[in-house]
Amino acid sequence: MEIKEIAELTGGKLFGGNDGIEILRVGALDTARENEISFVEKAETFQITDASCLLVPENFDAKLPCSYIEVKAPKLAFAKLAEVLHQTAKKSGVHPTAQIHESAVIGQGVYVGAFVGIGANSVIGDGTQVFDGVKIADRVNIGADCWIYPNAVLYENISIGDRVKLHAGTVIGADGFGFVRDGEHGYVKFPQIGTVTIEDDVEIGANSCVDRGSLGATRIGTGTKIDNQVQIAHNVQIGKRVIIAAQTGISGSTVIEDDCVIGGQVGIGDHATVKSGAVIGSQAGVLPRKIVRAGVWLGTPVQPLDEYKRQNAHVKGIVRLKEEIKELKKRVEGVARKQK
Amino acid sequence: MEIKEIAELTGGKLFGGNDGIEILRVGALDTARENEISFVEKAETFQITDASCLLVPENFDAKLPCSYIEVKAPKLAFAKLAEVLHQTAKKSGVHPTAQIHESAVIGQGVYVGAFVGIGANSVIGDGTQVFDGVKIADRVNIGADCWIYPNAVLYENISIGDRVKLHAGTVIGADGFGFVRDGEHGYVKFPQIGTVTIEDDVEIGANSCVDRGSLGATRIGTGTKIDNQVQIAHNVQIGKRVIIAAQTGISGSTVIEDDCVIGGQVGIGDHATVKSGAVIGSQAGVLPRKIVRAGVWLGTPVQPLDEYKRQNAHVKGIVRLKEEIKELKKRVEGVARKQK
Amino acid sequence: MEIKEIAELTGGKLFGGNDGIEILRVGALDTARENEISFVEKAETFQITDASCLLVPENFDAKLPCSYIEVKAPKLAFAKLAEVLHQTAKKSGVHPTAQIHESAVIGQGVYVGAFVGIGANSVIGDGTQVFDGVKIADRVNIGADCWIYPNAVLYENISIGDRVKLHAGTVIGADGFGFVRDGEHGYVKFPQIGTVTIEDDVEIGANSCVDRGSLGATRIGTGTKIDNQVQIAHNVQIGKRVIIAAQTGISGSTVIEDDCVIGGQVGIGDHATVKSGAVIGSQAGVLPRKIVRAGVWLGTPVQPLDEYKRQNAHVKGIVRLKEEIKELKKRVEGVARKQK
User: Which of A7, A75, B290, C305 is deepest in the core (most CB within 10 A)?
Assistant: First the structure.
């Protein structure tokens, strides 16, 4: 793609000529080479680059050795451009080793890789890519243009929207973890016969798990992005455009509303509610049934950022308190001695 | 199943007539519809329902719009009834793509799905269901009526009891994590040549791992239930009827005795002992070689619940202490001034 | 192997005769039987044993019921001996069900199991063992004598050194977790088009994940050992001979230098640097961009061991502070009363 085409595509203002140079790839600022494009988020972070073109913020006034395009949000423009330049070629066709039930419906332009299993009455939407070793049980409905990476497993009765990405080793729809104690006999399984609904544009990282609802559904809203090794328990309700970083666990029936951001290794107890716009820092812990309001939260149990910082400062200040008490004791005894 | 049959099965007392209505499914109280049964744990939590029948506690005195059956433990009765109403139909037969070593022994009524591998001298007990993509190495002994979900992996020399459920992506018998430093050369692997024994009625969640013993065995006792993404290290000994929630990790050679309950994201150091009846809250940390007595434990490092609460209250009270010291200082100076 | 051969191999000094007895297996001190060898790390920990031979420290002066060999580092000698005695037999040949792209290059003495997929232009080095169900995408370069256990997944454009072990269910090269917010529309994926380089002698545990670089490479250095369920994010740089225990997560672009030891369930924020020789205790948390120097670190956020201990002692001492303030108050009022 020529630089002038990129300027058009991004809606930016082109500077520096050479607008006919062809851009083949995106690259990092420090390693990009000829025919590559990179981006600068803030003028002050700019270093030298060998890229042929840069996406930069508006009113960027550093002198540049290459063409550059001023745009409102350079990182965003860069990400969108990368989607165009680095489009993964889609495959189509069904590998002869795949085992597809005769009642399954396979859309147009679908790719089904080697050693894939697709169960009875399952549906694979147009353009969806199902890679090697994926196992799809009965009555699973997958939308269009999804990417299901190798060895992912989808249990029965699951609904997946369009453009969903499930990375390798993800498990969708395993039984939730619910048992009822039966005295000395141990535990009886509480029924785990619900479903999972994953809406459009969701991405779920490698080896993550989303359990099926026990009686109702576990639900993940449109545009939500989930990292690797995340655990979503039965009946959890996750809203739209939520970000969940790696190794976080969300317990049964908890609700995460739209536009929340949840760090890595966070633990959220059951039946909690995380209100829209809340940001929960890494390794934090939310107690069962807790309601977490909008704002930034840290620690176990979670506290608002300010309180958390204040308390940490106080704890660090205990040594000082000890000394103050010691001094005060001396002072009091001094005063007392004078009385005699 | 007719309502009067359910009353018989649960040993409960039927009220409200219509005992010939057929119950087809269990359901949640708020979403259950006609021909469904639900349950109420406590009279005061009762809401309206469209279910055709309810399991309720004894001496339940709310007025109900439907038939109801009084039982001692409604949730338990509900779980047991669900097992009867929602029995998953077993398959049998061996998929033609499965690769089964000629020396392996496959029981009666066993199902072996597509792309399953079963190694030399392995045994699959009667009625066991081995789903697509499961890999079973050599000398693995699996009991009767087990459910091994897709893409689970069992390394060699493992023993699994009856009615065990291993969810998708679980890995049983990978090498334990033991290395010996060899100066500048880095690490030499400590032998990981032991085994894993999983007793009857154990359930293990998706993508969980149970490592093989380094020299002896890693052991999981009868009736123990383990959630998703749990890590059980080499030579761990877990008793009977233990509950372990998601993302918890148990380090090498640690002993968890019977009837313990361990929350999610708990970390337990090596060579620790958790005594029978201990309950460890989520995200807690147990130090290596620590002995955790019966009772409830929280925090890192774990403290008895009372101590943990008291300490948290004290920490929150530091601000107050600071103020008290400030006031006390003023008071002392006031007293001192009067002396002059 | 005869005892006298073992004495030679380990370079140790043999005591107790019977040097012609054959040693067939290694064993634990308390369970080893005839024809087995075990080891004692410290004389004072010695218990009785039925082993036929022991590896013991130099100048060991306990009386032993069996032959023994004095060596400098008994546990290390034991581990090295176990590698010789318990060598897993290698297989070779390609299973007829494996799907190998015609452009892939398979070395001498390679084993490729059932239901394995190997993509275009991938290379499998001599003697490497690729077990059942492993999925290897296009342009993956695997060195010699590697062990890739069942159902592991390697995405495209990855480079693996010699003698690397990847346990079952590991996922190498899934997309890193990077998104750019696009106002109300939600998130656009930041390009995840980099690579993963894993050097020689690395071992990675079951169900662990190593994400590909977003633009550059994620790198794991020679001799590094990683436990189960560990998450290594995009562009992380891990040095040589690093130990990382189970369920630890390392965020994007973080650098772990040579010879670090990182406990289980540790969380390390993005762009942090852990300097060579640092030891980070289990469940610790390292903030983004933090530099962790050599030494032992604990807690969230991490503190040097001494500070951590001191602070914990202070927190436990708050009760005492409270009492001191109370007493001091009384004393001050006593002094004040006398003034009147």
Answer: A7
